[in-house]
Amino acid sequence: MDSKIKIINVAESEREVENLLRKHAGTLFAPRIKMLIQIKKYSGEITLDSLHGILKVSENTLSTWRTSYLSGGIIELLSHKKTGHRPSVFSPEEHAFIEKTLINSSSNIAGYKELLLIVNKKYS
Predict the structure, then answer these.
(1) What is the pLDDT of residues 67-108, one digit of tens each?
(2) To 10 degrees, what angle do helices 30-41 and 14-23 make?
(3) pTM to 2 decimal places
(4) CA of 73: how far to CAs of 12, 104, 109, in Å?
C-alpha cells in the first residue's frame, strides 16, 4: 500500500456529487468536486500522484483539498479562504465612489486609467 494513499470515504452519493459539479461548473470549485468524483470512483483508495495525473492539479493543492474535506466535509471543501496578499489600493470611500461612477450611465469612462485619474483628482 502506497504511503500517499489516505482512505477517504465520500459521504455524498454519486448523484449528489454530480449535481454539485453541474451547479459549480466553470467555477474554482469544479476541480475540487472532480477530485471527489475520482476518490469515489476508486472507493477512496487513490494516491495523490494518480489524482494529479487525472486532474492536472498539484499534489500540494490536492492534499489541501483532501484535508479540508476530511476536516469539514463538503462545506469545508467548497469554502474559499484565499484572499489577496496585498491590501486594496482603494479605501472603502474610494471604492464606493468608483462603484457609483461605473453604475452611472452618464459617465463616459473609457478605461481603468481614466477612472484612476478621476479618483486621484477627487481624493488627492
Answers:
(1) 999 999 999 999 877 666 777 778 889 889 988 888 887 778
(2) 160
(3) 0.62
(4) 9, 43, 45
